[in-house]
Every structure is written in C-alpha cells, then in structure tokens.
Amino acid sequence: MDLSNLRPPKGATHSKKRIGRGQGSGQGVQAGRGHKGAKSRSGFKHKRGFEGGQMPLHRRVPKRGFHNPFRQEFEVVNLDALGERFDAGAEVTPELLREHGLVGRAGRIKVLARGEISKALTVRAHKFSGKAAEKIAAAGGRPKSSRRGRYGKSEEHLRGCGSQKACLLYAWSARGLSRGRPYPDSGH
User: Fold this and answer.
1) Shortest CA distance to 155 belongs to which of 163, 147, 167, 165?
2) Which CATH class is domain 74-145?
3) In Å, what is the CA distance from 128 to each residue of 87, 123, 135, 136, 143?
4) CA 167 to CA 154: how far, in whole Å?
5) Tens of pLDDT along 48-89?
6) pTM for this one?
7) Domain map of the chain by residue range?
8) By the 8 A CB rule, do 109 and 125 touch?
9) 130 bridge partner residues
10) Please, which residues have CB within 8 angstroms of residue 34's CB and are 6 or more apart in sequence?
11) Closest CA to 137 of 155, 156, 123
C-alpha cells in the first residue's frame, strides 16, 4: 500500500444527490420539498422569530421596565480605601487608583463616603457623592471633578467662565451652533 492506491473505506463516500432530474431518480417531481406551501417555492426565506403565523415568543411574553441607552457605569471607590492606601498631601488620580488596584477596568470613577478620612488628599475623579466631597474637604483635602460637562468642557472650566450665559455662548460659538439659533436658556 502506498499513496497512489489509498482509498476511503467502502460506503464512506457517495455521489451527490441530484434532485429535480426526472421521475426515475426518485427525487424528480417535488425534489424533496413536499407539496405546495411557502417552503416549496423558490425565494422562500425563514424570518427570524417567525412561528408560522402563531404569535411569536418575543411578542407574547410580557414586557417590563426600561433600558436607558445613555446609562453611564461608574467604578466605585470609598474613602476608607483612599485613607489606607495614600499618604497625606498626595494627589489621587484615576491612573493612580488603577495602579493600586482600587478600580478595575478603564472607566469613570465615583468616590463614595463609606468610612472616615483624616488625611488631606487632592482627589481627582469623575464624580463624588455629596457626603464624600464634604468629608474630603473637612479633612483639609480637595475633591476635583474631572467629569466633562454638557458642552464638552470640564466642570472646573465652566465654573471659571464667569456666568452661565458666557459659558454657553463660548461653547456654542466653539461648536458653530450660535448662527441663527436662540440660546438654550433664552426661553424660545
């Protein structure tokens, strides 16, 4: 036996079934499609979820709740963890929190107020709970929000604009929105 006379075992292979090639073949008239109906016609396509006219499952189960497409997930850090890991006077940034393993994946960070903090830390995060910001400030630190505002500017930048209308005017002109449009707070 060599490569020139290798063969599959008898019965392992068979020739392709040729349908629609005359009655004598046994697959001539209906060609395996049966009598009439949509499935026997050319161009039939099975629609996803279609159950033959019966009310499909995705329509007969009750629907409840709401899916918010603008939902924002936050990684959570508590004050007691910050107090244990960082020395007084340190500036805590999102990158530093990831290095210390306090937050996992890359994403927005929110600081919550569990525990106490006695060290003066400058904490940069995307969001703070009200109590957490109070406790950080009471310990002599500074909570700094690095969250982007409604017009793509950081909250610190918007606070430094002077007035809300000046900020809006600046943001709108930067985005080319002020041409022929009323200001959002003008009541039009």
Assistant:
1) 147
2) alpha beta
3) 20, 10, 11, 10, 8
4) 11
5) 999 989 999 999 999 999 989 999 889 999 999 998 989 888
6) 0.50
7) 74-145, 150-188
8) yes
9) none
10) 40
11) 123
